[in-house]
Amino acid sequence: MCLRCSGCCIRGSKLRLFVLFVFRLTLQWKRGGGAGSRGDGCTSCLEVRRRAAAVTVRAAQPKRVEAVAMESAAETAEAEKEVAAEKEVAAAGGGVEDKYGEDRATEELPVTPWAFSVASGYTLLRDPHHNKGLAFTERERDAHYLRGLLPPGVVSQDLQVKKIMHNLRQYKVPLQRYVAMMDLQERNERLFYKLLIDNVEELLPVVYTPTVGEACQKYGSIFRRPQGLYVSLRDKGKVIDVLRNWPERNIQVIVVTDGERILGLGDLGCQGMGIPVGKLSLYTALGGVRPSACLPITIDVGTNNEQLLNDEFYIGLRQRRATGEEYHELMEEFMDAVKQIYGEKVLIQFEDFANHNAFDLLAKYSKSHLVFNDDIQV
């Protein structure tokens, strides 16, 4: 029998048939004259033994080989599904595949308004509540990973106050001093209040009246970063969610305005935020209230100031001021949300409301909330 023809039959046969074949082939080889002899279409004995050994191995463990093959196929299918899912996510994110997983680094980490982390290093220097600037000592620089992020010199807060007062006095325009003070508050809160407390007579007119009036008029032009919370008509039905976005939870004092009667300047709409911010600076500097316990809020229901509505830099709602039921529904939702989030002991000061609303709000909420209005109360 020809080995080549027998090999074709082996592929579908059982092991014992193949053994029989090998036996018969061996007899043929012996009769043919040894290793140097070949029949028509037959191979050497060494090749026969190699093939027999290979087939024996494959035939001895057919179930295990099939199981491995099935597992490999399952793993391949699963991998293909994962690749397809990643491509779908990438397409949803703009069609660019997230090759290194950068976009998914925080994908499963929930972001909540009450999640805090301890700032250190570069982040600490950008945190106005804890940044001390050059006043960080050598020990603090090592403990908070600030080594190299600051110049090597350590400058006390007293010397920093002296330098800043020197710089402020170089400004001839009061609004320039106001902007410089707000910039300081936004990068180094401790130094801001030390500066204000040590020089209250000179700086009080800068952070509050009369300079704050001009600041409110031009608030859209000098706006850099939000210093308070904005509640507008667009937030109706979800005011409580807006309040939850504020990072501080232990609020003791809220100063709120709707911007309709800012000082003697009239309706300044959303730009009246300068009043709550300035008033609460006095709560801290003169009353000793922690800055983190103070919350300035502006209720934006529009404005009737044509100049602001046409100002390209205006930062509030560009619509006529809401009145009547629409106005009071928003205020009621706001007052209920404040009580629910911060409790009934939080102090709410109504600031610079028009008289027709100021009296109504005070009468309505004085029995259910801790409120007052220094514009109409003695």
TrEMBL record:
SUPFAM superfamilies cross-referenced by the UniProt entry: Aminoacid dehydrogenase-like, N-terminal domain (SSF53223)
A molecular function GO annotation: malate dehydrogenase (decarboxylating) (NADP+) activity
Record domain Malic enzyme N-terminal: where: 185-366
GO terms for cellular component: chloroplast
Domain of life: Eukaryota
Signal peptide (residue range): 1-32
Keywords noted in UniProt: Signal
GO BP annotations listed: malate metabolic process
UniProt protein name: Malic enzyme N-terminal domain-containing protein
Protein species of origin: Aegilops tauschii subsp. strangulata
